[in-house]
Amino acid sequence: MTTMRRGLILFAHGARAASWAVPFERLRDQTRERVAGAVVELAFLELMTPSLPDTIDAMRAQGIDDITVVPVFLGKGGHLLRDLPALCDEVRAAHPALTLNVAGAIGEDPGVQRAMTDYCVNSLGG
Predict the structure, then answer these.
(1) pLDDT (tens digit per residue) in 24-78
(2) What DSSP line would sit under 91-109, residue for residue?
(3) Which of 6, 17, 96, 107 sits in a 20 to 30 Å window from 126, CA-based?
(4) Which of 72, 83, 79, 77 is nearest to 109 (CA)?
């Protein structure tokens, strides 16, 4: 019996400034600490590497056949409505045996919304 290995990819936009990725790297590292039995990586849409297809290729090379992509975007704009589905179609064509799941935009989750609201309210101070 073979054990299915799982992967989790935090998918972010990317930017020219390397410092932009620091909070996403911290999120990846904190997620790794809490997820046992899964490989957790960070991938970018543009301007930074690795790309989503490259990250999935690397995971497949490790024998991972069940991957979940979490878009670390506040909402569902053009990148999540058009670009991400096109990338997923490309990946599924290249890896037909892969189970690829895509979560909703992280910023649309009610718990994330509550945390952001708390931050906004707390920023008012006393």
Answers:
(1) 999 999 999 999 889 999 999 999 999 999 999 999 999 999 999 999 999 998 9
(2) HHHH-TT-EEEEPPPGGGS
(3) 107
(4) 72
Sign of CA dihedral 9, 10, 15, 17: negative
Are the C-beta atoms of 2 and 61 separated by less than 8 Å? Answer: no
User: Helix H segments across 37-100?
Assistant: 52-61, 78, 84-94
Q: By the 8 A CB rule, do 50 and 58 touch?
A: yes
Pull the structure tokens for residue 73.
Answer: 């975007």
Please give the structure tokens belonging to residue 102: 């895509």
| CATH code for the domain defined by 5-122 | 3.40.50.1400
Structure tokens at 92: 């599924």
Q: Angle of helix 52-61 relative to helix 84-94, nearest 10 degrees?
A: 30
Q: What pTM, to 2 d.p., does this model score?
A: 0.92
Domain extents in the chain: 5-122
**Longest alpha-carbon distance in the chain:** 59
